[in-house]
Design a protein that fits this description.
The protein is α+β, with helices and mostly antiparallel strands. Strand 8 and strand 9 form a beta hairpin. It is globular. The two termini are 27 Å apart. The relative contact order is 0.12. The structure holds flavin-adenine dinucleotide. The site of flavin-adenine dinucleotide (FAD) has 22 residues, from strand 1, strand 3 and helix 11.
């Protein structure tokens, strides 16, 4: 494992900082307050290569590996969790699934559009009654000649309204058969495919989360990713990579909360001295920084294994579990360190606090990560 930041990572960090200063920081509180999803921003990010980070250059992507990807999501997470979450969902879920399981024709057709963000991607596994227990999904596809007819809904889908292309995993076989689900590439505008309710969320409010509705939606068999029946198995592999994204996003939020706390604790005076002088405050910062360092190492280890093409199920679950719990802990402590000011929108920690909680829920809750880790150890 190489701990040294490479030139690409440095370049990505500086580029995101610049993008953030000009096009995100001045607006994100308004986006957050009003739940505005800034779709145009993602086109700019596409021009900068940030929406196809892992996509090979021959398909119009940046051709980077997971180290650069983690740097990009972490840096963006420090600026705005919502933008980083959307960036992660586009890069590792929709684009990642298409890149890993698409045939040459599908990759040539969709990856350049996704990498440039001419098309924004969505990825739909979850339903209203099947989150952790995704195998019980009810959204079904029935074959009709060369077409499949899809009926049902998907819920909690990032870019459910604004996404131009969705990878949708639906039931094509028996309930609880892990080979009874298939992944389809479905373009926005396909008759019978519409968006439903947009969620009004605690945090990550500028990242759009909405329902997808399928009402006799006819999709050609050429839109199947990989083989019929492989959708669930594919989804689990996609989530192995996706969990590294959420770990990186958690690092970004954690880092932002820690940096804000260090600055504030040196500036804020009580009892005639900076509050950083009080052991009660400095120990909080020591704990936050130590947990951050451990989370970073776990994330780097998962990224390193992924770069080497090795199985990463346990390691990405560990990274996601630990990093997400770290960022909830760090942003909670950050609000405490800021006292009453931390409870207002005048300081960034209030937003880190709200945004952080998604990290212990999305792409598998902390409890589900423990199930994945325990199973990999005990079986
Ligand atoms: C902002 C946001 C964006 C999202 N984006 C997407 C997306 O783009 N695509 C997509 O497909 N999904 C998406 N999701 C859905 C997300 O992946 C699910 O919310 C998550 O997997 C949890 O499912 P659930 O909400 O149904 O909770 P449930 O599965 O109902 O879980 C409720 C509670 O029970 C616990 N629990 C469940 N089963 C067990 C068990 N066996 N043992 C112990 N505890 C258990 C859980 O850990 C949790 O604490 C998104 C969610 C959010 C909030």
């Amino acid at each position: 494992m190489d701990f040294q930041e490479n030139e690409n990572q440095k370049m990505i960090r500086e580029m995101i900082k610049d993008l953030g200063d000009k096009h995100i920081r001045p607006y994100f509180m308004d986006w957050d307050e009003n739940q505005i999803f800034p779709k145009e921003l993602f086109k700019k990010m596409g021009d900068l290569g940030l929406m196809g980070i892992l996509v090979p250059t021959e398909y119009g992507g940046s051709g980077f590996g997971y180290n650069e990807y983690v740097t990009a999501i972490t840096e963006m997470g420090k600026i705005c969790g919502s933008i980083a979450l959307s960036m992660a969902a586009h890069n590792s879920l929709c684009t990642g699934h298409t890149m890993t399981f698409g045939n040459e024709e599908q990759k040539n057709k969709y990856l350049p559009k996704l990498a440039s963000c001419e098309w924004l991607g969505a990825w739909a596994l979850t339903e209203a009654n099947t989150g952790s227990d995704a195998m019980r999904m009810k959204c079904v596809a029935k074959q009709d000649g060369d077409y499949w007819v899809i009926n049902g809904t998907k819920n909690w889908i990032t870019h459910g309204i604004s996404g131009d292309l969705a990878v949708v995993i639906v039931r094509t076989g028996e309930l609880l058969d892990s080979h009874g689900m298939t992944a389809f590439l479905i373009e926005r505008g396909t008759p019978g495919f519409t968006a439903g309710k947009k969620e009004n969320k605690l945090g990550m409010r500028a990242s759009e989360t909405a329902e997808l509705i399928f009402d006799n939606c006819r999709v050609h068999k050429d839109q199947i990713l990989g083989k019929e029946g492989d959708g669930f198995i594919q989804a689990m592999k996609v989530l192995d990579g996706g969990r590294i994204s959420i770990a990186a996003l958690s690092l970004g939020i954690g880092k932002g909360a820690i940096e804000a706390s260090i600055k504030y604790s040196k500036e804020r005076e009580q009892f005639g001295q900076p509050i950083a002088n009080f052991q009660g405050i400095s120990f909080k910062i020591a704990d936050m920084a130590t947990r951050y360092a451990a989370a970073e190492l776990l994330t780097m280890r998962a990224a390193d294994l992924k770069n080497r093409g090795e199985k990463v199920t346990r390691e990405s679950a560990m990274a996601k579990l630990y990093a997400s719990e770290m960022c909830v802990y760090a942003s909670n402590e950050a609000v405490q360190i800021h006292g009453g000011y931390g409870y207002t929108k005048d300081f960034p920690v209030e937003k880190y606090y709200r945004d952080s909680k998604l990290c212990t829920i999305g792409e598998g809750t902390s409890e589900i990560q423990k199930i994945v880790i325990a199973k990999s150890i005990l079986s």
